[in-house]
Amino acid sequence: MEEVLTNPKAGFYINRDVFGAEGDFITSPEVSQMFGEMVGVWAMCLWEQMGQPKRVNLVELGPGRGTLMADLLRGASKFKNFTESLHIHMVECSPALQELQHQSLKCMDEENTSEGVDKRSLSTLAGTPVSWHATLEQVPFGLPTIIIAHEFYDALPVHQFQRGSRGWCEKMIDVTEDSSFHFVLSPQPTPATLYLMKRCKWAVPKEVEKLNQIEVCPKAMDLTSTLAKRIGVDGGGALIIDYGLNGVVSDSLQAIRKHKFVNILDNPGSADLSAYVDFASIKHSAQEASDDVSVHGPITQSQFLGSLGINFRVEALLQNCTDEQAEALRTGYWRLVGDGEAPFWEGPEEQVPIGMGTRYMAMAIVNKKQGIPIPFQ
Ligand code: SAH
C-alpha cells in the first residue's frame, strides 16, 4: 500500500494532482473554503490556550493541494499576533504536490544568503515562513507545535489479518505465473502480528470475538506515538480529521479511481488506496507514548464544524456574493456537515453527493497544560 501510494517513480500521489472533480477524489478543503477557515479557528483557539506563544510550528501532514493551509492563512491573516508567531511546515512526500502547495500558499523564495543554509519560502498570504519536509521527524524540535492531519491517516498502509484454523494469519499478496496478483495467507507469524496483538489487548474481548478479519495500521500507531511524544515535550496539540471508526476496523481497504470504487489489485499506482482510521487505536497509542498529553474525541465533523461556528461563517459569506457563489456555498456547507444523500440533488443518481458530516470524525491530542481544546468540552 505504501509502495503503491508513495513509490518515488510510480506512486499514485507522486507525479500528479489527484484531487477535485477532474481528479480521482474530492476532499473537504476542496469542497469549500470554510473547512480550512474553521480549522484555522481551532488552531487559533489552541494558540490562545497555549498562552499566545511568540513562536509556534504549524505542521500539516499530507497537505494535498495546500488548499486547507491557504484558506487557514487567508482567514487568520487579520489576527496578526497569531500569524506572526507561525512557522509553517508542510510534510509531503510528493514533489509534484509540494510544487502545487508552494503555488497555493503564494510563496516567494528568499535569496539564499549563505552556502549550506536551507532556502526559505515566505507565504505572501500572511507573511509566514514555510518549509517542506518528507517526514514529521524532519520538522525541527524545540517550539510549541500545532499539527493538522486531514485525510492523512487513511493513506497509511494497513495490514489485514484473517481468522482461520491456524488462528490469525496475515493476508499477503502473491504473483501468479501470468503475472497477476492474488491474496494468500501467511504460513507463519509476520512482523505486523506484534501490532495485531497490541491492538487486540486494547479492545474488549467481545469486540474481537465477533470478527473474522482485522485491519491494523502499524504506521498510524507509530506516527501517533512520535507525534504525542513531541507534543508532550514541546507543548501544543494535534487535530486529526478522517473517516473511520472509534474501534477495531475489520475490512475497509478500498481503491478509488476517477470517483469510482475499483479492485484493490487492479493496475496498482493508478488508483487511490485508503482504509478506515481506527480512532481508538490512535487514542491508545498517544496515551501509551506520553503521560503529558490528553486525547479528546472523536466527535463527528458536523459537531466539530458546528461548534466552531460554521453556520455563522456561511451566513456572513452569503451576505456578499453572486447567486452562483451562494449556490456553491450552500452546497459546500451541506456536503461538509450533512448526512446521507444530498436531498437537493437533481443530477444523475450515481453522482449524488454524500454528506461528510457524520462519516468524518475529529480527534485532538493536546499537551495537558493546555486543558481541554475547543470544541471537545
Ligand atoms: N489533506 C489533503 C490531502 C489528502 S490526500 C486534503 O484533505 O485535501 C493524502 C496526502 O498525504 C497527499 O498530499 C499525499 O501526497 C500525502 N502522503 C501520503 N502518504 C504520505 C507519506 N507516507 N508521507 C508524506 N506524505 C504522504
From TrEMBL:
<dbReference type="GO" id="GO:0032259">
    <property type="term" value="P:methylation"/>
</dbReference>
<protein>
    <recommendedName>
        <fullName>Protein arginine methyltransferase NDUFAF7</fullName>
        <ecNumber>2.1.1.320</ecNumber>
    </recommendedName>
</protein>
<dbReference type="InterPro" id="IPR029063">
    <property type="entry name" value="SAM-dependent_MTases_sf"/>
</dbReference>
<keyword id="KW-0809">Transit peptide</keyword>
<dbReference type="Pfam" id="PF02636">
    <property type="entry name" value="Methyltransf_28"/>
</dbReference>
<dbReference type="InterPro" id="IPR003788">
    <property type="entry name" value="NDUFAF7"/>
</dbReference>
<dbReference type="InterPro" id="IPR038375">
    <property type="entry name" value="NDUFAF7_sf"/>
</dbReference>
<dbReference type="GO" id="GO:0005739">
    <property type="term" value="C:mitochondrion"/>
</dbReference>
<comment type="similarity">
    <text>Belongs to the NDUFAF7 family.</text>
</comment>
<keyword id="KW-0496">Mitochondrion</keyword>
<dbReference type="GO" id="GO:0035243">
    <property type="term" value="F:protein-arginine omega-N symmetric methyltransferase activity"/>
</dbReference>
<comment type="function">
    <text>Arginine methyltransferase involved in the assembly or stability of mitochondrial NADH:ubiquinone oxidoreductase complex (complex I). Acts by mediating symmetric dimethylation of 'Arg-118' of NDUFS2 after it assembles into the complex I, stabilizing the early intermediate complex.</text>
</comment>
<keyword id="KW-0489">Methyltransferase</keyword>
<keyword id="KW-0808">Transferase</keyword>
<dbReference type="GO" id="GO:0032981">
    <property type="term" value="P:mitochondrial respiratory chain complex I assembly"/>
</dbReference>
